[in-house]
């Protein structure tokens, strides 16, 4: 293994990729595998450079002085050789030509420096984040920009032959300058592709790295089981730990069969040729995947199927009686699906792997997801699981709890608390399915791979943890007055209004920043060609959709009263989840936008809660 030449912390001169310009940088670290140095520029930008692109300050200054002393003689020699034999050599003409050359050199240097933002665009490509399960991250409020892809397509012709022609001055000077700019841009993009290839591995591990992700594979199912067992107890206090059930009681083949029937029924609804087909955001290779937007139609068909079952007197509270077995069946299915996803990801090209799940560590990549968009033909597994089986299943479970409450307590109508919980969460799910296209700009789709984290979250965590309030009310009925119900309803409406209007504002700006309807919005331009909104909801706090989410989560729990903290687990969990996502957003946006993000933070100092955090 070759010895490294520069030490950590050493100040050296680093060449900016795609140019001949050197800048003062500080060595941050060295990768023994790729033999690349991570260096930090004065403006905070971090890049991975080869050792050949780094010079010590002393040698760089020495070569620079040597170059400046010898370049005039070479320049004059070159000019004298290209002069016609019968043309007299005049000192004045020579000096003016040298002056023009000097200006051209300066222009070329400026031009190459101006191409630096293009490198920045490709090195720090956006990674989106999601609000709750389907809208959001990172809420960088940027607009889409495809100019870089168009520019790369212009560089396909072979320009080396053109350079040979220009060497003999066979073209006008203006055309020569234009060709030099294109050639320089081509060099930049070639350098970008080389850097992307060498830096495609995931370097920053989240969720506690390998140990943290290994722990969460067991901790998440245990948490779901614990919460469901607690709701079954007469006294669901946190200190009253529930007895562990017998293992054979947690599994039933018939329940697993019903779960499979549910899953493949949603697959059938997804494959129906109804609804619009839209394109997602560009992938790293410039390709756009197509998605069929028919989630709301699937919800309507599911409602019709459930209504038919109830008409023929099917006992839907069967779901309540076997909720633990359904949760275990869903967990087993998500584990099997995750294993299949990881095995198939080992055969896909490097460009189809997830930016955040390509660490080279089995456990970490298995948990976060190794492949970005696993598909079977046109059937997108990740996109399907995001909204269909789990989110629609959440509504079905809530309805089962409502019917179970009426049967167990001999009620002709459900309690007011149960009606509020079902109504609030039904509104949330319908909103998600109605605005299904918004999920295509979220981090789940554009950045995160499809592995155990999303598979378990979509198929187990969402339906069985998000329905916790309704499950709690079946065994612990809580009576509330109409004025209290009205106040809780107003609170939920406020949260929903903030959540929906903020997300719509962000998604519309991402899709088409030039939309005349968004002319009232002000933004900070960035080096990536995108903008950071500083007016509207995004000028109020940095993550207004998270604020709306938390207000709604509180409104969902308040109908359960204050006898136990268990119904408020979802609020506590959700605050912790959003604070984690917000911290991840901040880190990604700081890397991506640099000084523009610092300006944005100065304009919008509060992250989620105004005047608090």
Cα distance spanning the termini: 48 Å
Please state the CA-atom Rg, rounded to the nearest Å: 30 Å
Helix content: 55-70%
Strand order of the largest sheet: 4-3-2-1-5
What is the number of helical segments per DSSP (H or I, 4+ residues)? 21
Sheet with the most strands?
Answer: 5 strands, antiparallel
Shape: globular
Classification by helices and strands: alpha+beta
Enzyme class: oxidoreductase
Main location: cytoplasm
Protein name: Delta(14)-sterol reductase LBR
Pathway: Steroid biosynthesis; cholesterol biosynthesis
Explain what you see.
The protein is α+β, with helices and mostly antiparallel strands. The protein has 3 domains: 10-57, SH3 type barrels (Roll), CATH 2.30.30; 201-479, no CATH class; 480-612, no CATH class. The protein is 56% helix and 8% strand. The strands form 5 sheets. It has a 5-stranded antiparallel β-sheet with strand order 4-3-2-1-5. The protein has a two-stranded antiparallel ribbon with strand order 6-7. A hairpin with a 6-residue loop joins strand 1 and strand 2 (22-31). Helix 14 (416-434) runs antiparallel to helix 19. The longest helix has 30 residues, at 482-511. It starts with 10 loop residues before the first strand and ends in a 10-residue tail after the last helix. The relative contact order is 0.11. Residues 63-101, 106-179 and 181-199 have low confidence and may be disordered.
């Amino acid at each position: 293994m070759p010895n490294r030449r520069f030490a950590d912390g050493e100040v050296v001169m680093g060449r900016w990729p795609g140019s001949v310009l050197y800048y003062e940088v500080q060595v941050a670290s060295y990768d023994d595998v790729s033999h690349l140095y991570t260096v930090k520029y004065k403006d905070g930008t971090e890049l991975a450079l080869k050792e050949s692109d780094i010079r010590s300050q002393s040698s760089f200054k020495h070569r620079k002085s040597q170059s400046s002393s010898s370049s005039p003689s070479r320049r004059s020699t070159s000019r004298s050789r290209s002069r016609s034999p019968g043309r007299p050599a005049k000192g004045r003409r020579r000096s003016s030509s040298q002056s023009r050359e000097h200006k051209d050199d300066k222009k070329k240097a400026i031009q190459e420096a101006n191409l630096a933002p293009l490198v920045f665009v490709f090195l720090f490509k956006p990674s989106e984040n999601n609000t709750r399960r389907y809208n959001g991250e990172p809420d960088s409020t940027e607009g889409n920009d495809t100019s870089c892809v168009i520019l790369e397509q212009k560089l396909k012709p072979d320009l080396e032959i053109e350079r040979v022609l220009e060497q003999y001055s066979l073209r006008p000077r203006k055309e020569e300058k234009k060709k030099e700019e294109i050639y320089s841009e081509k060099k930049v993009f070639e350098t970008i592709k080389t850097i992307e290839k060498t830096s495609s591995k995931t370097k920053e591990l989240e969720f506690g790295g390998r140990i943290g992700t290994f722990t969460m594979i067991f901790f998440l199912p245990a948490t779901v089981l614990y919460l469901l067992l607690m709701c079954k107890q007469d006294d669901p206090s946190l200190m009253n730990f529930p007895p562990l059930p017998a293992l054979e009681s947690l599994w039933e083949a018939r329940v697993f069969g019903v779960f499979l029937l549910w899953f493949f029924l949603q697959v059938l609804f997804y494959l129906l040729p109804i609804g619009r087909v839209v394109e997602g955001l560009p992938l790293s290779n410039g390709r756009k995947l197509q998605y069929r937007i028919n989630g709301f139609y699937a919800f309507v068909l599911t409602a019709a199927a459930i209504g038919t079952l109830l008409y023929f007197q099917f006992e839907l509270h069967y779901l309540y009686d076997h909720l633990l077995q359904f949760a275990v069946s869903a967990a087993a299915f998500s584990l099997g699906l995750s294993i299949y996803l990881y095995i198939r990801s080992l055969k896909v090209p490097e460009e189809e792997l997830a930016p955040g799940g390509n660490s080279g560590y089995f456990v970490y990549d298995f948990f976060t997801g190794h492949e970005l968009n696993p598909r079977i033909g046109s059937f997108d597994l990740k996109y399907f699981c995001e909204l269909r089986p789990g989110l629609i299943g959440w509504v079905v479970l809530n309805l089962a709890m409502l019917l179970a409450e009426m049967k167990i307590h001999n009620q002709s109508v459900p309690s007011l608390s149960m009606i509020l919980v079902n109504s609030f969460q039904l509104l949330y799910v319908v909103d998600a399915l109605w605005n299904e296209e918004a999920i295509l700009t979220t981090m789940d789709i554009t950045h995160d791979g499809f592995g155990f984290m999303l598979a378990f979250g979509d198929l187990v965590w969402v339906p069985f943890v998000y329905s916790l309030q309704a499950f709690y009310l079946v065994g612990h009925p809580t009576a509330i007055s109409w004025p209290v119900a009205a106040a809780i309803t107003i609170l939920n409406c406020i949260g929903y209004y903030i959540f929906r209007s903020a997300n719509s504002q962000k998604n519309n700006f991402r899709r088409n920043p030039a939309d005349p309807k968004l002319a009232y919005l002000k933004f900070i331009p960035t080096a990536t060609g995108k903008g950071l909104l500083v007016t509207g909801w995004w000028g109020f706090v940095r993550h207004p959709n998270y604020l709306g989410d938390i207000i709604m989560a509180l409104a969902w729990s308040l109908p359960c009263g204050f006898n136990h903290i268990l119904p408020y687990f979802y609020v506590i969990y959700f605050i912790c989840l959003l604070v984690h996502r917000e911290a991840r957003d901040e880190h990604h946006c700081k890397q991506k936008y640099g000084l523009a993000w610092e300006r944005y933070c100065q304009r919008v100092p509060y992250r989620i809660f105004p005047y608090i955090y």
